[in-house]
Protein backbone atom coordinates (compact mmCIF):
# COMPACT_ATOMS: atom_id res chain seq x y z
CA UNK A 1 0.00 0.00 0.00
CA UNK A 2 2.76 2.40 -0.98
CA UNK A 3 0.30 5.14 -2.01
CA UNK A 4 -0.38 6.00 1.64
CA UNK A 5 0.70 9.45 2.75
CA UNK A 6 0.15 10.45 6.35
CA UNK A 7 1.33 14.05 6.56
CA UNK A 8 -1.64 15.81 8.21
CA UNK A 9 -3.13 18.96 6.75
CA UNK A 10 -2.29 22.28 8.32
CA UNK A 11 1.42 21.71 8.76
CA UNK A 12 1.09 19.69 11.96
CA UNK A 13 3.78 17.05 12.52
CA UNK A 14 2.41 13.49 12.16
CA UNK A 15 1.60 12.01 15.56
CA UNK A 16 3.26 8.59 15.95
CA UNK A 17 2.77 5.88 18.59
CA UNK A 18 5.09 2.90 19.03
CA UNK A 19 3.35 -0.10 20.59
CA UNK A 20 5.10 -3.19 21.99
CA UNK A 21 3.34 -6.56 22.13
CA UNK A 22 4.86 -10.03 22.71
CA UNK A 23 8.52 -9.61 21.83
CA UNK A 24 11.92 -8.93 23.35
CA UNK A 25 11.62 -5.21 22.45
CA UNK A 26 14.86 -5.67 20.50
CA UNK A 27 13.51 -3.94 17.40
CA UNK A 28 12.55 -0.87 19.41
CA UNK A 29 16.00 -0.85 21.00
CA UNK A 30 17.59 -1.17 17.57
CA UNK A 31 15.86 2.01 16.44
CA UNK A 32 17.79 3.87 19.12
CA UNK A 33 21.06 2.55 17.65
CA UNK A 34 20.99 5.20 14.93
CA UNK A 35 22.16 7.74 17.49
CA UNK A 36 23.63 10.11 14.91
CA UNK A 37 20.34 10.35 13.04
CA UNK A 38 17.71 9.57 15.70
CA UNK A 39 16.94 13.15 16.67
CA UNK A 40 16.65 14.14 13.02
CA UNK A 41 14.20 11.28 12.46
CA UNK A 42 12.16 12.08 15.56
CA UNK A 43 12.21 15.73 14.56
CA UNK A 44 9.98 14.85 11.60
CA UNK A 45 7.19 13.52 13.83
CA UNK A 46 5.34 14.11 17.08
CA UNK A 47 6.36 11.01 19.06
CA UNK A 48 3.20 10.91 21.14
CA UNK A 49 3.77 7.49 22.72
CA UNK A 50 6.71 5.09 22.87
CA UNK A 51 6.09 2.19 25.21
CA UNK A 52 9.79 1.49 25.67
CA UNK A 53 10.56 4.99 26.90
CA UNK A 54 7.51 6.09 28.88
CA UNK A 55 4.77 4.73 31.11
CA UNK A 56 2.36 7.47 30.00
CA UNK A 57 -0.90 6.16 28.47
CA UNK A 58 -1.29 6.02 24.72
CA UNK A 59 -3.20 9.05 23.35
CA UNK A 60 -6.62 8.69 21.77
CA UNK A 61 -5.60 10.40 18.52
CA UNK A 62 -2.60 9.67 16.31
CA UNK A 63 -1.69 9.31 12.65
CA UNK A 64 0.79 6.41 12.52
CA UNK A 65 0.87 3.28 14.69
CA UNK A 66 4.17 1.38 14.71
CA UNK A 67 3.69 -2.08 16.26
CA UNK A 68 6.37 -4.50 17.42
CA UNK A 69 5.56 -8.00 18.66
CA UNK A 70 3.15 -10.85 18.06
CA UNK A 71 -0.48 -10.90 19.13
CA UNK A 72 -0.67 -13.49 21.91
CA UNK A 73 -3.60 -12.29 24.04
CA UNK A 74 -7.10 -10.97 23.46
CA UNK A 75 -6.00 -7.71 25.09
CA UNK A 76 -3.21 -7.37 22.51
CA UNK A 77 -5.66 -8.11 19.70
CA UNK A 78 -7.96 -5.36 20.95
CA UNK A 79 -4.99 -2.96 21.19
CA UNK A 80 -4.18 -3.65 17.53
CA UNK A 81 -7.79 -3.21 16.44
CA UNK A 82 -8.07 0.11 18.28
CA UNK A 83 -4.80 1.30 16.77
CA UNK A 84 -6.06 0.39 13.29
CA UNK A 85 -9.29 2.30 13.82
CA UNK A 86 -7.48 5.46 14.89
CA UNK A 87 -4.39 5.46 12.65
CA UNK A 88 -4.15 6.44 9.02
CA UNK A 89 -1.21 4.07 8.71
CA UNK A 90 -0.06 0.94 10.58
CA UNK A 91 3.55 -0.27 10.36
CA UNK A 92 4.52 -3.72 11.68
CA UNK A 93 8.19 -3.97 12.64
CA UNK A 94 10.23 -7.10 13.27
CA UNK A 95 9.66 -10.80 12.77
CA UNK A 96 7.26 -11.16 15.72
CA UNK A 97 4.88 -8.54 14.31
CA UNK A 98 5.40 -9.56 10.67
CA UNK A 99 5.20 -13.37 10.86
CA UNK A 100 4.43 -14.26 14.48
CA UNK A 101 8.16 -14.81 14.94
CA UNK A 102 9.41 -16.95 17.79
CA UNK A 103 6.14 -16.59 19.80
CA UNK A 104 4.44 -18.16 16.78
CA UNK A 105 6.17 -21.46 17.52
CA UNK A 106 3.51 -21.98 20.22
CA UNK A 107 0.61 -21.51 17.80
CA UNK A 108 0.11 -25.18 16.94
CA UNK A 109 -0.14 -26.33 20.58
CA UNK A 110 -0.78 -23.33 22.79
CA UNK A 111 -2.24 -25.33 25.70
CA UNK A 112 0.71 -27.73 25.66
CA UNK A 113 3.22 -24.90 25.74
CA UNK A 114 1.37 -23.11 28.54
CA UNK A 115 1.30 -26.31 30.63
CA UNK A 116 5.01 -26.89 29.98
CA UNK A 117 5.82 -23.45 31.41
CA UNK A 118 3.17 -22.89 34.07
CA UNK A 119 1.73 -26.30 34.87
CA UNK A 120 -2.02 -26.72 34.77
CA UNK A 121 -2.87 -23.09 35.54
CA UNK A 122 -1.40 -20.02 33.89
CA UNK A 123 -1.13 -16.96 36.15
CA UNK A 124 -3.75 -14.25 35.77
CA UNK A 125 -1.03 -11.86 34.61
CA UNK A 126 -0.88 -13.79 31.32
CA UNK A 127 -4.29 -12.43 30.38
CA UNK A 128 -6.68 -14.20 28.02
CA UNK A 129 -4.20 -16.14 25.92
CA UNK A 130 -4.73 -16.95 22.25
CA UNK A 131 -2.63 -18.73 19.63
CA UNK A 132 0.14 -16.27 18.60
CA UNK A 133 -0.34 -14.56 15.23
CA UNK A 134 1.26 -11.65 13.36
CA UNK A 135 -0.34 -8.21 13.52
CA UNK A 136 -1.73 -8.63 10.00
CA UNK A 137 -3.90 -11.53 11.19
CA UNK A 138 -5.84 -9.11 13.41
CA UNK A 139 -5.90 -5.89 11.36
CA UNK A 140 -4.73 -4.55 8.01
CA UNK A 141 -1.07 -3.54 7.93
CA UNK A 142 0.13 -0.87 5.49
CA UNK A 143 3.90 -1.32 5.76
CA UNK A 144 6.18 -3.99 7.19
CA UNK A 145 9.80 -3.89 8.32
CA UNK A 146 11.03 -7.48 8.35
CA UNK A 147 13.86 -9.33 10.13
CA UNK A 148 14.99 -10.00 13.69
CA UNK A 149 15.99 -7.47 14.76
CA UNK A 150 15.07 -4.85 12.20
CA UNK A 151 17.63 -2.75 10.37
CA UNK A 152 17.03 0.73 11.85
CA UNK A 153 17.79 2.41 8.52
CA UNK A 154 15.18 0.20 6.83
CA UNK A 155 12.75 1.40 9.50
CA UNK A 156 13.59 5.00 8.64
CA UNK A 157 13.05 4.28 4.93
CA UNK A 158 9.65 2.71 5.60
CA UNK A 159 8.60 5.48 7.96
CA UNK A 160 9.58 7.99 5.28
CA UNK A 161 7.43 6.09 2.76
CA UNK A 162 4.51 6.08 5.19
CA UNK A 163 4.78 9.82 5.81
CA UNK A 164 5.59 11.13 2.35
CA UNK A 165 4.52 8.35 0.00
CA UNK A 166 6.55 5.99 -2.18
CA UNK A 167 6.16 3.97 -5.36
CA UNK A 168 8.56 1.26 -4.19
CA UNK A 169 7.17 -2.27 -4.28
CA UNK A 170 7.85 -4.75 -1.47
CA UNK A 171 10.44 -7.45 -2.13
CA UNK A 172 8.93 -10.84 -2.94
CA UNK A 173 11.77 -12.95 -4.38
CA UNK A 174 13.81 -15.39 -2.32
CA UNK A 175 17.06 -14.38 -0.66
CA UNK A 176 19.33 -16.45 -2.92
CA UNK A 177 19.22 -13.76 -5.61
CA UNK A 178 20.61 -11.15 -3.23
CA UNK A 179 23.07 -13.58 -1.70
CA UNK A 180 24.64 -14.54 -5.03
CA UNK A 181 25.73 -10.93 -5.48
CA UNK A 182 27.81 -11.16 -2.29
CA UNK A 183 30.10 -13.62 -4.09
CA UNK A 184 30.81 -15.55 -0.89
CA UNK A 185 29.88 -18.94 -2.31
CA UNK A 186 26.76 -20.94 -1.46
CA UNK A 187 26.53 -22.56 1.96
CA UNK A 188 25.15 -25.71 0.39
CA UNK A 189 28.46 -26.05 -1.41
CA UNK A 190 29.96 -26.32 2.07
CA UNK A 191 27.41 -28.85 3.32
CA UNK A 192 25.82 -26.17 5.50
CA UNK A 193 22.07 -25.66 5.68
CA UNK A 194 20.76 -22.18 4.86
CA UNK A 195 17.15 -20.95 4.73
CA UNK A 196 17.81 -18.45 1.96
CA UNK A 197 16.15 -20.92 -0.41
CA UNK A 198 12.72 -19.86 0.85
CA UNK A 199 13.26 -16.60 2.78
CA UNK A 200 12.00 -13.24 1.54
CA UNK A 201 14.69 -10.97 0.07
CA UNK A 202 15.14 -7.32 0.98
CA UNK A 203 17.68 -7.47 3.80
CA UNK A 204 20.69 -7.50 1.48
CA UNK A 205 21.61 -11.00 2.64
CA UNK A 206 23.55 -9.50 5.52
CA UNK A 207 24.00 -12.73 7.47
CA UNK A 208 25.48 -14.75 4.57
CA UNK A 209 27.70 -11.77 3.73
CA UNK A 210 29.13 -12.07 7.25
CA UNK A 211 29.61 -15.83 6.95
CA UNK A 212 26.40 -16.93 8.68
CA UNK A 213 23.66 -18.91 6.93
CA UNK A 214 20.21 -17.33 6.72
CA UNK A 215 17.90 -18.25 9.61
CA UNK A 216 14.70 -17.14 7.88
CA UNK A 217 13.90 -14.14 10.08
CA UNK A 218 12.52 -12.10 7.15
CA UNK A 219 9.74 -14.64 6.69
CA UNK A 220 8.75 -16.89 3.83
CA UNK A 221 8.95 -15.36 0.38
CA UNK A 222 5.68 -15.35 -1.59
CA UNK A 223 7.76 -16.98 -4.34
CA UNK A 224 9.09 -19.72 -2.05
CA UNK A 225 8.69 -23.38 -2.96
CA UNK A 226 9.13 -25.18 0.35
CA UNK A 227 8.79 -28.65 -1.14
CA UNK A 228 11.47 -27.94 -3.75
CA UNK A 229 13.72 -26.54 -1.01
CA UNK A 230 13.30 -29.75 0.98
CA UNK A 231 14.35 -31.70 -2.10
CA UNK A 232 17.49 -29.57 -2.47
CA UNK A 233 18.36 -30.04 1.20
CA UNK A 234 18.01 -33.81 0.94
CA UNK A 235 19.91 -33.91 -2.34
CA UNK A 236 22.81 -32.18 -0.59
CA UNK A 237 22.89 -34.91 2.03
CA UNK A 238 21.47 -32.77 4.84
CA UNK A 239 18.58 -33.74 7.12
CA UNK A 240 15.26 -32.42 5.85
CA UNK A 241 13.90 -32.64 9.41
CA UNK A 242 16.54 -30.15 10.52
CA UNK A 243 15.49 -27.81 7.72
CA UNK A 244 11.85 -28.03 8.81
CA UNK A 245 12.72 -27.43 12.46
CA UNK A 246 14.87 -24.41 11.59
CA UNK A 247 12.15 -22.97 9.37
CA UNK A 248 9.61 -23.06 12.20
CA UNK A 249 11.57 -20.63 14.36
CA UNK A 250 10.25 -17.59 12.46
CA UNK A 251 7.64 -19.13 10.17
CA UNK A 252 5.52 -21.50 12.25
CA UNK A 253 2.31 -19.52 11.75
CA UNK A 254 2.70 -19.33 7.96
CA UNK A 255 3.62 -23.00 7.69
CA UNK A 256 0.64 -23.98 9.82
CA UNK A 257 -1.72 -21.90 7.67
CA UNK A 258 -0.34 -23.61 4.57
CA UNK A 259 -0.67 -27.07 6.10
CA UNK A 260 3.13 -27.46 6.17
CA UNK A 261 3.44 -28.35 9.87
Q: Cα distance, first to last residue?
A: 30 Å
Radius of gyration: 19 Å
| Overall helicity | 25-40%
Portion in strands: 5-15%
Which structural category do the helix and sheet elements fall into? alpha/beta
Tally of extended strands? Answer: 7
Strand count, sense and barrel status of the largest sheet are: 5 strands, parallel
Number of helices: 10
**Uncertain parts:** none
Question: Averaging pLDDT over every residue, what do you get?
Answer: 92
Q: Give, in spatial order, the strands making up the sheet with the most strands.
A: 2-1-3-5-7
| Shape estimate | globular
User: Secondary-structure element order, as H and E?
Assistant: EHHEEEHEHHEEHHHHH
Assembly form of the protein: single chain
How would you describe this structure in keywords?
261 residues; alpha/beta; five-stranded parallel beta sheet; two-stranded antiparallel sheet; 10 helices; 7 strands; globular
